[in-house]
């Protein structure tokens, strides 16, 4: 005999679903009809790409919408490579890209709206105050594995790196002339936030994230510390002056010719009118 | 359907019957459509690389481009199977024990409270379990054996998440044992233990098996909690303290960032996952049909 557990709520749920579905369908139909009407009169800009640029782009978009009634700006995230691809295919009018364009992307047009740096971070309880480029390279390739070897406590280093496809990873690898296949990591993370959580929860972790996000979190009391790179502190001043070695432009990228409504937005996003938004996210406004 | 005695009965039934038919067709169609969609998205990778690359490639470097790219899915398949298998191995006996306690040994009032607690546990969102795992569980494991984010952390988080499924469904299965069987056992003078071993467990076998299968289905598909605590390093783990990446975590980590072939290979990962779930379900169905008990 077969005794199946009878999921008791199934019956009730099914009965409920029967009455809900027509309403849902009707609701969706009405909404899409209304949306369709609205779209004809409104100007809609779509942005997609880097998760580092997206929060800033969303803030700028909010202010732009307020000062330009009738314009709707839609921001989606998905990484810099997605920003490039979406701008190329026209899926989005503007791609968000957190690095300089590569030579093979020369047919695209980039507008820099801010500059960000990448900082090495450790747990606030870690006594190590700085690491040389050589030490960082050795740690990430697995030839240094204990904090004692670089002047810290006797504990294994938890090496935190980013998952494939992130521009933070690309920039980090390029700066330290590393090959991703040689990286020996203990933890692979997705976004900056997960990296900060991991390092804050692990006194022996070493990771790298956007200076913007890291400074914001460190100021809010999260248990992380930003390490200087080649003796230069990861501060906004040093990123602004160009002295900090591991920095990158945050770009809005379009495939020329620009669609209607796009050039004014690009001009607005790179103007000094949004400098306070850029600084609020711990990025540096581009030189005028 | 029974042949009704009058049209009076037949008419009110008909709209209901057709509505139910339509709804079940929609449910079946959704599964078919999802499978077709995943197949379509995975097709470029299956076609250009051939299925063997996913087994034989030594590493996973899908974004390397050109001849450098490697697409080995085996370490992630191992991560999925080991984390889910470990969690089921822990949650099944715990769930059965708790079910037997709640139905046969514990006082009824405590049993009710126990069930409510399990229901609350089952309602906790996976991201919360993951956060708890990251902040509480992994530091504990790290003190024992670094780096803490590991297969073990993934197994323990998954166990917490599927325990309510195994426990509540096992309890239901045990409760559905016919009262006549229990009365017969009592009339024969069997001890409580002998009743459990000789009557309750064999009769409830199908239900208990369903509980384990449903739980393993949930464990295989779980993404967020594992992503947060298992470390996500791509390797076949040599010990439970090694970090692993599951197929689901791999998709969640990379899909938003993947283009072209890389994206297609992630869908191959999804296809593999659906295959694993299908195999588990088929195994369960054949086990339940096997005669000899009940």
- The number of strands of chain A is 9
Task: Classify the fold: give the CATH topology of the largest domain in chain A.
Answer: D-Maltodextrin-Binding Protein, domain 2
Rg of chain B, rounded, reads 23 Å
Order of strands, main sheet of chain B, comes to 1-2
CATH architecture of chain B: Orthogonal Bundle
CATH superfamily of the largest domain in chain A, by name, is Periplasmic binding protein-like II
Written as H for each helix and E for each strand, in order along the chain, the element string of chain A is HEHEHEEHEHEHEHEHEHH
Q: What is the CATH class name of the largest domain in chain A?
A: Alpha Beta
User: What Rg of chain A, in angstroms, do the CA atoms define?
Assistant: 23 Å
Question: Please, how many domains of chain B?
Answer: 1
Kindly state the number of beta strands of chain B: 2
Strand content of chain B: under 5%
List the domain count of chain A as a whole number. Answer: 2
Number of helices of chain B: 11
Task: Explain what you see.
The complex is a heterodimer of chains A (288) and B (294). Chain A is an alpha/beta fold. Chain A folds into two domains: 43-115 and 249-280, D-Maltodextrin-Binding Protein, domain 2 (3-Layer(aba) Sandwich); 116-241, D-Maltodextrin-Binding Protein, domain 2 (3-Layer(aba) Sandwich), CATH 3.40.190. Helix content of chain A is 40%, strand content 20%. In chain A, strands 1, 2, 3, 4, 5, 6, 7, 8 and 9 form a nine-stranded mixed beta sheet that branches. In chain A, strand 1 (43-49), helix 2 and strand 2 (71-77) form a beta-alpha-beta unit. In chain B, strand 1 and strand 2 form a beta hairpin. Chain B is globular, with a radius of gyration of 23 Å. Chain B has one domain: MetI-like fold, CATH 1.10.3720.10. Classes of the chains: A alpha/beta (288), B mainly alpha (294). Chain A binds chain B through residues 1-6, 14, 17-18, 77-79, 81-82, 85, 155-156, 158, 163-166, 180-181, 185-190, 194, 197-198, 201-202, 204, and chain B through 19-20, 23, 59-64, 134-135, 138-139, 142, 146-149, 169, 172-173, 176-177, 203-207, 210-211, 227-228, 231-234, 243, 245, 252-254, 256-259, 262, 288-289, 293-294.
